[in-house]
């Protein structure tokens, strides 16, 4: 499904057993997004949500966690300014969605507060696939995540900056991490 937010809200009543949902062109108003999420089927396992200033806000991530307890795939994209996610939000998402196996934050610029990214290592028991925008900080912190997690099998770093230097740094980081974590596949992808 991909259509304006108001149509999505109306369709939630028509298709209460929807398992997979992709929403583009979301409203920038957090209250409208929260209302739309509250109307969606609690059975959604796959959610690709974005193209809004508010998509990756703490309120929206918490609403997603609360509304979709059987969520297995979450992709968030956001336009505009970078978002910051706190450790409590990441803990809440992991504890409310224990089946979450794929987390894709590659379509947004996100900063993680202290211990927020590290929560992936110990609060997400089913997490297998992680996609994040590449920065040196994210890569360093993913090392800590992987030392705590026995479930993560694939890490994809998405290039946020298209320069030869950034790509070489990402390549070296992936090679180094691949040597340390042989049971994890590391890849670099374009945005």
Give structural notes.
There is one protein chain. The chain is an alpha/beta fold and 191 residues long. The protein is globular, with a radius of gyration of 16 Å. Residues 1-14 have low confidence and may be disordered. Helix content is 37%, strand content 24%. It has helices at 5-14, 30-39, 58-67, 87-96, 136-148, 164-180; strands at 20-23, 46-52, 73-78, 83-85, 102-107, 110-112, 129-133, 154-159, 185-190. Helix 6 links the parallel strand 8 (154-159) and strand 9. It is built from 6 helices and 9 strands. It has a 7-stranded parallel sheet, covered by helices on one side.
Shape: globular
Unreliable residue stretches: 1-14
The percent of residues in helical segments reads 25-40%
Q: How do the SSEs run, as a string of H and E?
A: HEHEHEEHEEEHEHE
Number of helices: 6
Radius of gyration: 16 Å
Mean pLDDT: 85
| Main pleated-sheet profile | 7 strands, parallel
Indicate the structural class: alpha/beta
Strand order of the largest sheet: 1-2-3-5-7-8-9
Quote the beta fraction. Answer: 15-25%
Give the beta-strand count.
9
The N- and C-terminal alpha carbons lie at a distance of 23 Å
List the helices and strands and how they pair.
Blueprint: H1 5-14, E1 20-23, H2 30-39, E2 46-52, H3 58-67, E3 73-78, E4 83-85, H4 87-96, E5 102-107, E6 110-112, E7 129-133, H5 136-148, E8 154-159, H6 164-180, E9 185-190
Parallel strand pairs: 1-2, 2-3, 3-5, 4-6, 5-7, 7-8, 8-9
Helix pairs in contact: 1-2, 2-3, 3-4
Give short descriptive properties of this protein.
single chain, 191 residues, alpha/beta, two-stranded parallel ribbon, 9 strands, disordered N terminus
């Amino acid at each position: 499904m991909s259509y304006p937010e108001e149509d999505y809200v109306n369709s939630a009543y028509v298709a209460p057993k929807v398992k997979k949902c992709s929403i583009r062109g979301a409203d920038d108003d957090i209250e409208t997004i929260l209302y739309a999420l509250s109307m969606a089927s609690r059975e959604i396992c796959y959610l690709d949500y974005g193209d809004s200033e508010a998509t990756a806000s703490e309120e929206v991530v918490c609403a997603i966690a609360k509304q979709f307890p059987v969520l297995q795939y979450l992709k968030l994209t956001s336009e505009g300014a970078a978002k910051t996610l706190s450790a409590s939000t990441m803990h809440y998402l992991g504890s409310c969605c224990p089946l979450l196996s794929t987390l894709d934050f590659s379509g947004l610029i996100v900063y993680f507060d202290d211990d927020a990214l590290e929560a992936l290592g110990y609060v997400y028991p089913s997490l297998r696939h992680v996609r994040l925008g590449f920065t040196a900080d994210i890569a360093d912190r993913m090392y800590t995540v992987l030392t705590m997690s026995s479930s993560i099998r694939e890490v994809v770093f998405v290039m946020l900056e298209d320069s030869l230097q950034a790509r070489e740094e990402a390549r070296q980081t992936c090679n180094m991490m691949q040597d340390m974590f042989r049971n994890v596949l590391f890849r670099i992808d374009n945005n």
